[in-house]
Amino acid sequence: MGLIVQKFGGTSVADAPRIHRAARRAIAAKEAGNQVVVVVSAMGETTDHLIDLAKQVCEYGDCRGPSPKREMDQLLVTGEQVTIALMAMAIHAQGCQAISFTGGQIGLVTDAAFSKARIQSIEKQRVFEQLEKGKIVIIAGFQGMTPQGDFTTLGRGGSNATLVAIGAVLKADVCENYTDVDGIFTADPRLVPNARKIDRISYDEMLELAGRGASVLQTRAVEFAKKYNVPIHVRNSQNDNEGTWIVSETANMEHIVVSGAALKKELTRVTIKNVPDRPGIAARIFGDIAAGNIVVDDIIQNVMDDRTANISFTVERGELGDLKVVVERIVKELGQAKATYQDGLAKVSVVGVGMRVHTGVAQRMFAALADAKINIQNITTSEIKISCIIDEADGPRALRLVHDAFELHKLK
Amino acid sequence: MGLIVQKFGGTSVADAPRIHRAARRAIAAKEAGNQVVVVVSAMGETTDHLIDLAKQVCEYGDCRGPSPKREMDQLLVTGEQVTIALMAMAIHAQGCQAISFTGGQIGLVTDAAFSKARIQSIEKQRVFEQLEKGKIVIIAGFQGMTPQGDFTTLGRGGSNATLVAIGAVLKADVCENYTDVDGIFTADPRLVPNARKIDRISYDEMLELAGRGASVLQTRAVEFAKKYNVPIHVRNSQNDNEGTWIVSETANMEHIVVSGAALKKELTRVTIKNVPDRPGIAARIFGDIAAGNIVVDDIIQNVMDDRTANISFTVERGELGDLKVVVERIVKELGQAKATYQDGLAKVSVVGVGMRVHTGVAQRMFAALADAKINIQNITTSEIKISCIIDEADGPRALRLVHDAFELHKLK
What we know:
The structure is a homodimer of 412-residue chains.
Chain A: E1 3-8, H1 16-31, E2 35-40, H2 46-58, H3 66-93, E3 98-101, E4 109-110, E5 119-121, H4 124-132, E6 136-140, E7 143-145, E8 151-153, H5 158-169, E9 174-179, E10 200-202, H6 203-211, H7 219-228, E11 232-236, E12 244-247, E13 260-276, H8 281-291, E14 296-303, E15 308-316, H9 320-334, E16 338-351, H10 361-371, E17 378-382, E18 385-391, H11 395-405
Parallel strand pairs in A: 1-2, 1-9, 2-6, 3-6, 9-11, 10-12
Antiparallel strand pairs in A: 4-5, 7-8, 11-12, 13-15, 13-16, 14-15, 16-18, 17-18
């Protein structure tokens, strides 16, 4: 007897037969004696279709600004609402009891940052009431509601954030994340053909991999899972194989020096030159950027002389439009400072908790890239990862080289 | 300076260009100095598409029962939510301010009769707040929310019910109902080629026409409009012509004996024979039927001898499944009673407030049908209408005959 939260992504609920297949998994878990909550995404191409409708409408004029962002979320939350209703019907059709809830209906309250809202609280009581009646509870992923009653979406990977947040507040025994792959791989198998499925990985390693471009689970979902110690099991919805367990770090994990490698593409490096070198300037700059809800990474500051410094960081290309507005305002206020933007970059990273106790990891990575004449433009490191910024064109090759250098295809 | 509520049906918002056309109407009304609220239906075929998805899912098992009805409403309300968001974006794109609300978001509270819920209250404050900020307020038609937070739909013609209910609580100067026809006609122009647009019609006449099958505006919307004295202007969204005004009765309306004729098809007559003739039985029978939220019409009771009576009534074919369950239970409890069902019926009606002061109307109608050898199976009358139940196959011809008999094609 446990409490299981299952999440099915868009491809796993893309049509009626797949919805029924997902429903059978939920029912099987229920019949095995568990309480079951199911989080679903929008069906297949639904979100893209809704975005396309909005684009058609906005072709006729200017749809930017905060009000249209609210309306965009008002539009997009319908995608998951369609799936929850159909999933509940599918479970009914198979002879079990189910009830569906939108984010708003279970009191999943967020801030008002439309299109990338953050979860603030969940009223778990409504879920428990239904579980205690023996029902399978279906919850719409990717969405919430502000305290004022406006619908919000949680941004990229929002359904996974819902999965883990629900798992955390309900104190679930496991969050099962069903996708169309067998688990987390040592690298993206589309880029590295001999990549291998990882059986167990720590939250911290997954965090670094997620942040460096492994797209199955996003940083925020893993952060949440780590904070509340919720085990995540990433599985393939097409088979019954064991997938990858994302769990707290255990002692024997340190035997493995490098667990995985990742590539993040479409990066732009922003460099602000001639920044006055006095306390509080960096805090000021990144405070303004954070206030715009823009995620930056790989921050490097070099002091140029006793009065000025250069500050650089990377940002995803998609964020650049919003970011430029903020940066240009800051530059103007700072006087002699100047911003430059270099596009077409990628970042290759290796991650492993074993780095803490093993030496020579960085050297082995740099040598692999240098031997292949790949130029490293920036290096950033944490306790358990090493990242190199390189030309985007070199990205896939660099990932394969690094994967080979650490023999990640071999089971350890 | 007034307050106008506009409603656009599914065909008037079927694609991006039509949404923009509707948006331009709302903006024009705003720029003429009015406060403007817009009620919209789901785009074109959206509701049919959602119903089709549900059917696909339910093919695999049994989706009847109250829980799937809740899920069906959970599914269907997404249709209007898509339109409100796109309509708000279209108004933004044209340079005006707008904000969209679902039924739940403006506190449109209904009972829990899923698929045909009734409006209980509307929190008008949220609408007024936005109107006072100069925004055009977009509201999803056809939907509401129970006090427990479950989504409901208002049943057939629900968007018109929303239009009039919003018009009533906001004390609107006019409710403009935009459709794809020029207004209310003396009969359905598809069946009667020389039918003529009516300029003004009273609530009572419209009520009788709506109940007898004129499909532009449903009974419940007109009842609400009459109760709160909200003028409705039925107009064509494709042109700027004056349509039909539905208003309180005025003295000169009685000069017109018959305002319109209507045909209602797909009727089934239910006859319960050998009902014990004692007080309270009819109330008991129709109480049970009403509790099942089933609408019946044309109730006739004949006493057969001193102890028993026959009771008959008509019901739309679509309601028959739900109704039979209730009727068979009643018959069983009554002992010797027996129910029969006659399918394939239609009802032709003429309506006019002038009937109150003119005589010979019924005779003229019966003669027109008799001359054409159309058999009248039942007759029911009110102060301002006469209805005859006939074979469905005779329906369109009977409507044309009656329309000619009262010379409804001539402007009076």
